[in-house]
Amino acid sequence: MDAVKGSDGQNAKRPGKKDERSRRTREKIVAAALELFVAQGYGATSLQEVADRAGVAVQTVYFVFRNKRTLFKDVVDTSIAGDVEPVATMDRDWFRAACAEPTAAGQLRAHVRGVRDILGRVAPVIPLIAAAAATDPEIAAQWPAGPDPRYTVQHAAAEALTAKPDARPDVDTTRAADLLYGLLSPELYLIFTRDRGWSPDAWEAWACTALTAQLCKGQE
């Protein structure tokens, strides 16, 4: 890493050429794996095929990810995040900006738009998880039992939303979190956009209207 002066005068580190090459290689492998997993399924895809699609040696895939299970977990995580950076959803700029909106209606518009972007990436991967777990039981171990991280995110959004002046006073944080968790689920997104042929724009408009009616004053 190369040292540079930050705005506060302190030394900061920026990625060196080696770090940047490693990041690009990781991104290429993950993108190739995503394409193949969606097209062929987890079980039918070999790491050699992933390497060939990514344009790297198969040894590089093993060096970066160790095995196919770890690669699959990274594909899912990257689909959710949108990049390979290890930044949790609640620490993402879009989530913080949505929670900072001064009104519940404004937060809902920003939040639904952010979730739509995630669902557009992750929805094709959701069916793969169950299928992969069926062929490789150790896959399930990579998502340990406990609170659903997606619910944790929606609960944090609900906490911010129910404190806004235009939030419905008869809807508490738990109820709001349940509504966000259910209506913004990948399963429901797939029903509308894949099974019923809705466009992502149509789904976003519907989700925003439905949630605003449930969570904001004067929208019944």
Describe the structure.
The chain has a two-stranded antiparallel ribbon. The chain is mainly alpha-helical. The protein has 11 helices and 2 strands; from the N terminus they run E-E-H-H-H-H-H-H-H-H-H-H-H. The chain is elongated.
Main sheet attributes: strand count, strand direction, barrel closure: 2 strands, antiparallel
Helix fraction bin = 55-70%
Question: What portion of residues belong to β-strands?
Answer: under 5%
Would you tell me the overall average pLDDT?
A: 86
Which H/E pattern describes the elements? Answer: EEHHHHHHHHHHH
The rounded Rg comes to: 20 Å
* 3D shape: elongated
What's the total count of β strands? 2
Structural class estimated from helices and strands: mainly alpha
List the helices and strands and how they pair.
Layout (H helix, E strand, L loop, with lengths): L1 E4 L5 E4 L2 H24 L6 H8 L3 H8 L2 H14 L11 H7 L4 H19 L3 H10 L13 H13 L11 H11 L2 H10 L4 H16 L5
Helix pairs in contact: 1-2, 1-4, 2-3, 4-6, 5-6, 6-11, 8-9, 9-11
